[in-house]
Amino acid sequence: MFNLSAFLSYVIVVTFTPGPNNIMSMANASRVGYKKTLNFILGVTTGFFLIMLFSSYFNIALSAFLPKINSYMSVIGALYMLYLALQIMGFHIKKTSHENHKDHSDASKLNSYKSGMILQFINPKVILYGITLTSNFIIPYFSSSYQLVLFSLFLAFVAFLSNSSWALFGSLFNRFLSNYEKPFNIIMGLILIYSALTLSGLWH
Fold this sequence. Notes:
It is found in: Cell membrane. It holds the Pfam family LysE. The chain crosses the membrane at residues 6-25, 37-60, 72-93, 126-143, 149-172, 184-203. Keywords: Cell membrane, Membrane, Transmembrane, Transmembrane helix. It contains ten helices and no strands. It has one domain. By secondary structure, the chain is an all-alpha fold. The radius of gyration is 18 Å and the shape is globular. Mean pLDDT is 78; it is low at 92-103. It has helices spanning 4-16, 20-32, 34-57, 59-89, 97-110, 113-121, 124-138, 145-172, 174-179, 181-200. Helix 3 (34-57) runs antiparallel to helix 8 (145-172).
């Protein structure tokens, strides 16, 4: 029998705990506000929906091939997270106007719909979450396309709420965070580095 309470508990805990999506949403909103971070969040939501849907349809196949591709995905995901961490930690560095303009452009690229969506496809945490969730809670009880799409939409909506919550926190405390921009960016960057090391298997 489908265990709704266990399903919701797992979804909420995993989705709302710190991860690349939430950290990036918070860091972006602390710089430019919630409204300008919304495109990134929508990109995350779209990518999240697609990963959940793909996991539902290809759960058996992905589970069979996962041991072969997991190490590669972990390395790619870890390297990308390290890149994001360095970008976040570098925002506070004083540079020339030309360099500041370039950094602003780079920051805008990281805070885009495309960036948010791509992040989901190279984030092993999201992929493994999708496979685990669908194989244990969804596929054994629901199989129609209509049901799988509804579940994927629901999971994407929860991801949207999670990222929005973190982004709103970053936006509301913008003035406070701006006074402590350097330590805040460093802490956010270190959390991302920790996530990268954990996903790569170098940190247990």
